[in-house]
């Protein structure tokens, strides 16, 4: 699984971090980012749900 966040689209709503806190966090500016070492999702079952929860569709999840 490959996770990408489009920083130009992200508005920092934080829905991804609320849905899958073991994979997503927010940086110092409030924008979403993937936690270090979790770029592959770390087997978290809620990664796809976190992507769907993003109100602006900034998160892309694809198979590696």
Automatic annotation (TrEMBL):
Domain 4Fe-4S ferredoxin-type: 1-29
Cofactor section: [3Fe-4S] cluster
UniProt keyword terms in alphabetical order: 3Fe-4S, Electron transport, Iron, Iron-sulfur, Metal-binding, Transport
Superkingdom of origin: Bacteria
Role description: Ferredoxins are iron-sulfur proteins that transfer electrons in a wide variety of metabolic reactions.
Name of the protein in question: Ferredoxin
């Amino acid at each position: 699984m490959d996770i990408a966040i489009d920083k130009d689209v992200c508005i920092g709503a934080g829905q991804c971090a609320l849905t899958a806190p073991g994979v997503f966090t927010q940086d110092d500016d409030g924008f979403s980012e993937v936690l270090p070492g979790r770029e592959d999702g770390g087997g978290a079952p809620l990664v796809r749900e976190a992507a769907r929860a993003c109100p602006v569709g900034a998160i892309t999840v694809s198979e590696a």
